[in-house]
């Protein structure tokens, strides 16, 4: 399977999951009729069971994609194969939650809108600033890459609205493709990583709190989409914050020969002093 076909398959399965989510709302009327005849606990158990199955299939598919990418190029940032589809899935769940569910708890409607649209605007602006700064630096290598992959950069900028981690795909080296080998400077990579941390703080944490409040305050049945969103955020939040902080604290500059020579000279000098 070629890299292009693999990426197409990944997006296709993601769209299938989105379509599955939308189908849940097309059956709302039937669901309401069933609620009148079936005990509430039975309905909630069924919703949780379906949610677990959906998440399980989705996770298995992502792991399968990750293993394929790992076989193609072990040195690449193959974790984007896991993070980007999960981010888009979480983003779609949040949009569906706002559209169809949050109106059951009116006090959560405006906070849901603010912490959904606000981070999107911040992430897109930050992505644009990074691209513009790289072009201003006048790097010939980056200009060549941007000229050849401007559409990919634009797509990544839009997807980064859901989460800044999506922007890392541009320099992830996945599948060994040159288009995923953007020559960003170390400063830009650091900004991207700290942007991911900020995204978790202003987006994931508030959305997690909203889901908890919705779970405690909603009257009636607990539907599939809120359940999936709660699980998705619960998984994404701790992994995202801890992983991004650790990654941002790393020094992305590779040790140079000069650094090694300086260290050796320091060691020799200390030995001579002794």
UniProtKB/TrEMBL annotation:
The UniProt record lists the keyword Transmembrane helix: yes
Top-level taxon of origin? Eukaryota
**Bilayer-spanning residue ranges:** 47-68, 80-97, 109-132, 152-171
Q: Where is the composition biased (Low complexity)?
A: 262-274
Alphabetized, the UniProt keywords read:
Membrane, Signal, Transmembrane, Transmembrane helix
Range of residues in the leader sequence: 1-23
Locate the region Disordered: 252-274
Q: Does the keyword Transmembrane helix apply?
A: yes
Q: What is the name of the protein in this document?
A: Uncharacterized protein
Q: State the organism named in the record.
A: Rhizophagus clarus
Q: What is the lineage of its organism?
A: Eukaryota, Fungi, Fungi incertae sedis, Mucoromycota, Glomeromycotina
């Amino acid at each position: 399977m070629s890299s292009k076909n693999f990426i197409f398959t990944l997006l296709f399965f993601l769209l299938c999951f989105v379509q599955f989510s939308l189908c849940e709302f097309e059956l709302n009327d039937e669901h309401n009729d069933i609620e009148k005849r079936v005990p509430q606990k039975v309905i909630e158990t069924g919703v949780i069971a379906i949610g677990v199955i959906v998440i399980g299939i989705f996770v298995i598919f992502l792991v399968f994609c990750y293993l394929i990418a790992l076989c193609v190029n072990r040195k690449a940032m193959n974790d984007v194969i896991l993070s980007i589809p999960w981010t888009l899935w979480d983003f779609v769940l949040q949009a569906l939650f706002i559209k169809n569910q949050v109106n059951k708890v009116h006090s959560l409607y405006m906070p849901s809108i603010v912490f959904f649209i606000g981070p999107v605007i911040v992430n897109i602006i930050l992505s644009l600033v990074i691209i513009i700064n790289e072009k201003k630096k006048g790097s010939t290598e980056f200009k060549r890459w941007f000229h050849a992959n401007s559409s990919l950069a634009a797509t990544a900028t839009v997807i980064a609205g859901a989460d800044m981690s999506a922007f890392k795909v541009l320099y992830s080296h996945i599948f060994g493709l040159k288009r995923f080998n953007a020559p960003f400077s170390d400063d830009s990579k650091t900004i991207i990583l700290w942007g991911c941390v900020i995204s978790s703080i202003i987006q994931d944490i508030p959305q997690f709190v909203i889901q908890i409040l919705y779970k405690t305050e909603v009257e009636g049945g607990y539907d599939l989409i809120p359940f999936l969103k709660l699980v998705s955020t619960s998984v994404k939040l701790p992994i995202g914050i801890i992983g991004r902080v650790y990654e941002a604290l790393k020094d992305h500059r590779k040790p140079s020969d000069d650094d090694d020579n300086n260290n050796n000279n320091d060691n020799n000098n200390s030995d001579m002093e002794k």
